[in-house]
Amino acid sequence: xxxxxxxxxxxxxxxxxxxxxxxxxxxxxxxxxxxxxxxxxxxxxxxxxxxxxxxxxxxxxxxxxxxxxxxxxxxxxxxxxxxxxxxxxxxxxxxxxxxxxxxxxxxxxxxxxxxxxxxxxxxxxxxxxxxxxxxxxxxxxxxxxxxxxxxxxxxxxxxxxxxxxxxxxxxxxxxxxxxxxxxxxxxxxxxxxxxxxxxxxxxxxxxxx
Length: 209
Fold this sequence. Notes:
By secondary structure, the protein is mainly alpha-helical. The protein has helices at 3-22, 29-36, 43-47, 51-78, 86-100, 104-117, 120-130, 134-144, 155-178, 189-205.
């Protein structure tokens, strides 16, 4: 890597860790520069344009990485059957996030994403970007194919709720794993991996009011 590339990577690594711990508003550019080892106060502006652009770059990087792995998992699933059951679709959809739970730096990414995309300033950007992704698009199509018992006008709302619940639950698990003094013991990963698709399936198929 060149010096510029290393400097950019240092900013990404530092901001990911800081946003994971404090959220966007709890972190200043000065905090990021100090944590990344940059002495130049304009480092973020030079590499990304500003703090908002840095946040959007982090979102883009993580979501694209997850979606590539998600698409691979879904295509492997579809290679064995034309109509996989809903639970199998959910397990494949969650594959990249579950994989990230096994690695410390990748757990930071999960925690960072949960904090960042809950920020109203970045919700619109994130939602619009996610609509362009092939893995999520395929997952949504497969999920909707199993929502016949649910009124059509509730399909999008159920998927949004399931997406939000899934990400927050995985981020919470990551936080418990990383905490030196967790407020409760994290589930072992095998149990957590088995439980979450069951919960999401119940949420998606819950009776309409």
